Amino acid sequence: MSSPNLSQIYESSFATDPPLQLLQSELQHPQSQPPPTLTPSRFQGPVTRFTHLPHSSFLSSNGHLETALPSAPADSITHDPIHPVFRPQNFDSSLSIADQAYAAMRPALALATKLITTDEALGWWIHVLYGEARNDGHSHAYANTGAGAGTGGRPYLAPNALESNLSQAKADLAARWDALSSILVFYWRASTVRGRSVCATTASNALQVLCELRGVPYTPPSISAGAGVGAHTFSPRIGLSSIFLYHLISPVARQARTACEEMRVQMYLAVTLVHELAHVFVESVGFAGGYEPYIYRTDLMPEAGFSWEIWTFGVILGCAELSTLPFGTLSVRTWDMGFAFPSLKAPVHMDWVKAWFCRETWGRIGEVLRLDLLVPASAVGRPEVFIADRYFDGSWNSVLYRARGQIYEAVPFRDGDFGPGPDCPVEVWFSEVALQDARMAIENGVSSVEDFPGPFGNVYKHLQT
Ligand SMILES: [Zn+2]
């Protein structure tokens, strides 16, 4: 069986894709005005309204959106070399604008390269490479993406003494990357496929992409009887949402964009790329049963991408809203908010984003990581500012709260909408109000129980803590 032709497969899925249609119309009629939002229906998720996000005056005046950037190009890493895994020929070019998009994502590729090649950033990858597959004997159920559920303990990777030998590990990593660089394909995917909207996805091969687009269950070869070769072969595909494509090359969006906003797009894309690469890397190492294990025993779920983000940044990175224009603030959340809705997050200061593109940061990255010099933001304890999904006035709203003394007020202030009091950590307050809000939303018929996936999301919903 020959590998399906992806360009034919996803041509139909692009036919009604809002970001791509908008992009095409802009490219044909460059004079058109920027629309207020890219996809007004958002991710078809339950949030129906964003209150003064992402561009509230509060975020603007507090450095979450704009800051001074280095003027000398040499101070930035954006023109540094790109790892072969991100080489141009690894990007599917069926779309006529794909080459233009590749050129526009150069800063993201340079940053992603730093994140997978800098000695001090390699610990996670080395642990995956050498970690010993064990089972924690936990009595709770274990399940993973699409591959069915199992019981009888959680597979995890125990530390291995080999991990401390950096020079050998680097050689072994290089060989692994060489192999991956020759088979990995990045492709642009429609922003929504069969009602599901995510910014990026990873597949083991083109057949899995095909199954996803056609809505047919994909059965991994390791657990299917008599699986053939060909399309089943490990030939990983990373799909990137066309919303990124829009942000990268829309003449309308780019013309109105500040350098800081551009940097946020690039940072979010870089982290997304490496997050997906983490999944591919784990699969390339191969673990019994084809399941993705818990990378560390302390991980909350077997989600290699989140595991890598937590290892590297201490938080999971997100954005206020991928489909808004302008592209707003980046945000961070904790493991237990991984897939949760409603969720609690903190907007990231622009200086934090800038630092990752500064040569100086990478020049002393060991110290930066060891001493926690790049603390992103926090959505636990008593943060200076946080964002909470709240239900009121018959809809879900993403509300920004800021500290005023030790009392939080919502921005914009809504009568009676106070955040946690001075003695209450925000996560404790949130766990209570989120429950009340969810109940109210269900009573009003705005949301259903299915809309509240909790930390494990719908993919990992069979997991228990
Ligand atoms: Zn992931």
Please tell me about this protein's structure.
Residues 27-46 are annotated as: Disordered. β13 (395-404) and β14 form a beta hairpin. The strands form four sheets. Strands 1, 9, 10, 11, 12, 13 and 14 form a seven-stranded mixed beta sheet that branches. Strands 6-8-7 form a three-stranded mixed beta sheet. Strands 2-5 form a two-stranded antiparallel ribbon. It is globular. It has one domain (22-181, 250-451). It has helices at 6-14, 18-28, 57-61, 98-104, 106-117, 123-130, 166-181, 206-214, 242-249, 251-256, 259-285, 304-313, 350-357, 359-363, 365-370, 426-443; strands at 49-50, 132-135, 142-143, 149-150, 155-158, 185-189, 200-203, 237-241, 316-319, 330-333, 344-347, 385-392, 395-404, 407-411. By secondary structure, it is of the alpha+beta class. The longest helix has 27 residues, at 259-285. α2 (18-28) packs parallel to α9. It is built from 16 helices and 14 strands. Bound molecules: zinc ion (ZN). Zinc ion binds at residues 275, 279, 303, 305.
Radius of gyration: 22 Å
Mean pLDDT metric: 84
The secondary structure category is alpha+beta
Low-confidence stretches: 39-46, 143-149, 223-231
Strand content: 5-15%
First-last Cα distance: 42 Å
Query: How many extended strands?
Result: 14
> Biggest sheet, in brief?
7 strands, mixed
